[in-house]
Amino acid sequence: MGLISSIFTWWNGATAGTYWTTWRAGTFVGEDPQGNRYYRNRDNSRRWVIYKGLAEPSRIPPEWHHYLHHTTDTPPTEDPPLTKPWEKPHQPNMTGTPYAYRPKGSLYASGQRPKATGDYEAWTPD
Length: 126
Fold this sequence. Notes:
Layout: H1 3-8, H2 16-25, E1 27-31, E2 37-40, E3 47-50, H3 62-68
Antiparallel strand pairs: 1-2, 2-3
């Protein structure tokens, strides 16, 4: 990423001010599977994330979300959450992207929409 974009944009990753604060007062806490890096200040009163790539909050897994919002005092690197065998890995919200879920019959789904079957009766006020 270029210097100019890091100074003037926040959505392409961390800004120059965030990098400065991280270098000056940040302590590295851990990294999630997507490559986002988590930091805290020395007295643990502030916690933040530096996203790898686009700054999209839905990319933060639940265990890191708990840590960032002070729901838990220990980061998932020190106290990993217990996972059940039926749990799936965290996925970001894909709404608005080409990877969004598009059910059958959606205007954005590929292919032909099914014909109306005639079982629909429009509501009319009395």
